[in-house]
Amino acid sequence: MKPESSRDKSKPDTFGKAYVTGNVVEGNARVTKNNWDGGVQVYNMPDAEFEQYIFTLTYMVDGEVYKAVEVETGTEIAAVDAPEKEGYEFTGWANLPETMPSEDLTVEAEYTAILYNLTVYLDGDIFYTAQLEMGAPIEIPEVELPSNRVFDGWEEEIPATMPSHDVEIHGTTSVISGLTSIFTDENERLTVYNLRGILILKDVTIKEAAERLPKGMYIINGRKVAF
Question: Rounded to whole angstroms, how far apart are CA atoms 121 and 119?
Answer without folding.
Answer: 7
